[in-house]
């Protein structure tokens, strides 16, 4: 499927599974419950400027799905199975990932996560209570993100831009934050156990405590 405009279309369960779709515009389309495993979307638009709405991906299967250079603003991904999803160089402003799953459960107590969300604008996106542990999440814009109760343990958040961001609301232990613009992150009220920082970042955090490093 290439260079197509789809308006208020409901996609059936396996209609797009494994396909590569380029330069398409989806206006108020319904992907809910669709199996989009291994589906690739390149330079597609899922946000409609006129109605200011995104598309519906609730309960969809997005295992190993790839969104490259797409506009996913205000799209609804609630309850989606997003293990192994790739979102690269996209706009996802205001998208809703609450209750989306990025994990593969082996047992109730044994599981692992996989997601590649890279070089994307995630401003105002909702990742409340999301579990994105040991995932590739680098060079994203995280302005005013809702991450209340989320877990990013061990993930690569390097090179990110964090503005109006509440570091206290989620777990960032053992994350790689090197090269990131950390905004209002402070040592006083944020758990930084195992976090990777570069020397400039560490120096700034210590200066906030009144400690000055000598070279």
TrEMBL record:
<dbReference type="Pfam" id="PF00805">
    <property type="entry name" value="Pentapeptide"/>
</dbReference>
<protein>
    <submittedName>
        <fullName>Qnr family pentapeptide repeat protein</fullName>
    </submittedName>
</protein>
<dbReference type="InterPro" id="IPR001646">
    <property type="entry name" value="5peptide_repeat"/>
</dbReference>
<dbReference type="InterPro" id="IPR051082">
    <property type="entry name" value="Pentapeptide-BTB/POZ_domain"/>
</dbReference>
